[in-house]
Write a structure and sequence with these properties.
The complex is a heterodimer. In chain A, 86% of the residues lie in helices and 0% in strands. Chain A is mostly helical. By secondary structure, chain B is α/β, with parallel strands linked by helices. Chain B has two domains: 170 residues, Rossmann fold; 65 residues, no CATH class. Helix content of chain B is 36%, strand content 25%. Classes of the chains: A mainly alpha, B alpha/beta. Chains A and B meet through helix 7, helix 8 and helix 11 of A and helix 2 of B.
Chain lengths: 264, 247
């Protein structure tokens, strides 16, 4: 009993050591921000105080929630389709050198197209609904995942493959027993990056045409010079992105139970 | 071919017009342990790649129980230098992997492996991951995996070379004990002359360029006398003889 209590306390201390500096830094930043706006060092119409921002958050909570759901839906669909495309592209490209040589340059080129430039075009082609937003999210998210998977497939231990071959396994069995599990950690690393891209991608495409979503809300409050609401929506986006990354970490732990063992 | 488990006939293999091994004829009897020793680059691994069916010989055949299995992977089992347990699979799945690859259902494969966990000193590890096991245990798990798909013949490529010397000695003793209980014939590759003498019934010396079987030595000591055997002069004279043959 005593030992158990001791270990709980120890864990708490370790946790504090890890998180406290980060928390303190953020609190410090908010205090500086507060002083800057309250003492009118920066005019309050340009930089609202933290309290104004919280008030705006509370006041507009229903509207923000509705818009968030729209943005999240777009990001989710885009990410989902992005994952599927990335999986098929990476797997086919890994199995066939010719496809790799043919499509890898195109993949890289899609990443150099400025999002701002392509978003209005997508709106012109697909209308003001969700389709152009989802398409843009797909474009921005599939790449990190595909590259992650490709790296993962490549990093597979040649001897493990040899072992499977000596057991009489063909390509498909080698893929499911060795290659894919080996690529999972790379996949999740890519997915984490893609998740944050997904939210930003959805918001940007909403800026450039649409009726709903956090991006639309942003353009409206900007036109009204409601800076407190602008900051409020930024905070909402930060929180959503963090939650999404947390969700991916949880997913990773569920999908890779052996990883926890290794780190011990 | 009475009592012969595995035989080869005139095996040859070359890469890029360089002949690696030539006219290899070896035999492995039922329940026998045979070692192949040779300096690096003498073609030991190439020979195993041919025996396991991973590669086709340029010429020659491999027979298992008089059946031609040349170039057919999956007929006998091959354990590579590292233990190669897959980190993402539990021990039970790692051990059953060969059977599952061959199309056996998970349930049947677990059942077949179950009774052997004790013989291999792996009780209580079924639900663990490889990273939770010690080096010796990992090696035994890999050996169990090898045994389950062996069809009576296991090819072991320096299986104990990565272990520390105490664990290695324990593993040698354990391996001999275990071989008494199992229906298995083994071919070892090793650099370690002492290991070869301690474990083997016969030793082939592979050498030259291209690699050929230069010599064959029988160790006529019963398996249950091996431990005392290490400390005898006879052991040393075998060692001296083999050293001279290698160089």
């Amino acid at each position: 009993m005593k030992r158990k209590l001791q270990s709980i306390i120890n864990n708490l201390i370790v946790g504090l050591k890890n998180y406290l500096p980060g928390v303190l830094a953020i609190v410090g930043l908010i205090i500086v921000w507060h002083i800057l706006s309250v003492k009118s060092i920066v005019p309050s119409y340009m930089l609202p105080s933290p309290r104004d921002v919280v008030n705006a958050l509370i006041e507009d909570r229903q509207i923000l929630l509705d818009h968030s759901l729209v943005t999240l839906t777009e990001a989710f669909y885009g990410l989902f389709i992005g994952i599927i495309i990335a999986f098929f592209m990476a797997t086919l490209m890994d199995e066939c050198k010719f496809l790799y040589r043919a499509f890898y340059p195109i993949m890289v080129i899609t990443q150099t197209i400025p999002t701002i430039a392509i978003a209005p075009l997508l709106v012109l082609w697909m209308g003001f609904g969700m389709e152009p937003k989802i398409t843009l999210v797909v474009l921005t998210t599939f790449f990190p995942i595909a590259v992650g998977l490709l790296d993962g497939y490549k990093s597979v231990d040649a001897d493990s493959v040899k072992l499977l071959r000596s057991m009489g396994a063909g390509k498909i069995k080698i893929f499911f027993h060795v290659k894919f599990p080996n690529a999972l950690s790379h996949f999740f690393a890519g997915l984490k990056i893609s998740a944050s891209y997904a939210i930003v991608g959805a918001v940007i495409s909403e800026w450039l045409g649409g009726f709903e979503g956090l991006g639309v809300y942003m353009t409206r409050v900007k036109k009204a010079y409601a800076f407190d609401k602008m900051f409020a929506v930024i905070i909402v986006i930060i929180v959503i992105s963090l939650l999404l990354m947390k969700l991916i970490n949880v997913l990773r732990k569920i999908c890779m139970p052996w990883d926890k063992v290794k780190n011990k | 071919m009475d009592g012969m488990k595995l035989t080869t006939k005139d095996l040859c293999k070359s890469y890029d017009n360089r002949i690696i091994i030539e006219d290899i004829n070896i035999k492995l009897k039922e329940k026998e342990i045979v070692s192949i020793i040779g300096i690096s680059g003498s073609g030991k691994t190439t020979l195993f790649n041919l025996l396991s069916g991973l590669e086709m010989p340029d010429k020659g055949n491999v027979f298992l129980d008089a059946e031609d299995i040349t170039g057919q992977p999956g007929r006998i089992s091959y354990m590579l230098q590292k233990d190669l347990l897959l980190p993402h699979k539990k021990i039970k799945d790692n051990v059953a992997l060969g059977l599952i690859v061959k199309g056996m259902s998970k349930k049947d494969a677990y059942k077949k492996a179950e009774g052997l966990f004790e013989i291999f000193g792996l009780e209580g590890t079924t639900e663990l991951y490889p990273d939770q096991l010690s080096g010796g245990m990992r090696q035994r798990a890999a050996l169990l995996r090898t045994y389950l798909t062996a069809n009576g013949v296991a090819l072991l490529d320096e299986p104990f070379s990565a272990l520390d010397s105490i664990t290695k000695t324990q593993m040698h003793k354990w391996y001999l004990d275990m071989m008494l209980k199992l229906d298995l014939s083994t071919i070892f590759i090793t650099h370690d002359i002492e290991e070869a003498i301690y474990l083997s019934d016969r030793i082939y010396i592979l050498g030259g360029s291209p690699g050929i079987i230069k010599n064959e030595v029988s160790i006529d000591i019963p398996r249950n006398k091996r431990e005392e055997f290490i400390e005898t002069l006879e052991f040393l004279s075998y060692k001296k003889q083999l050293k001279e043959m290698l160089l």
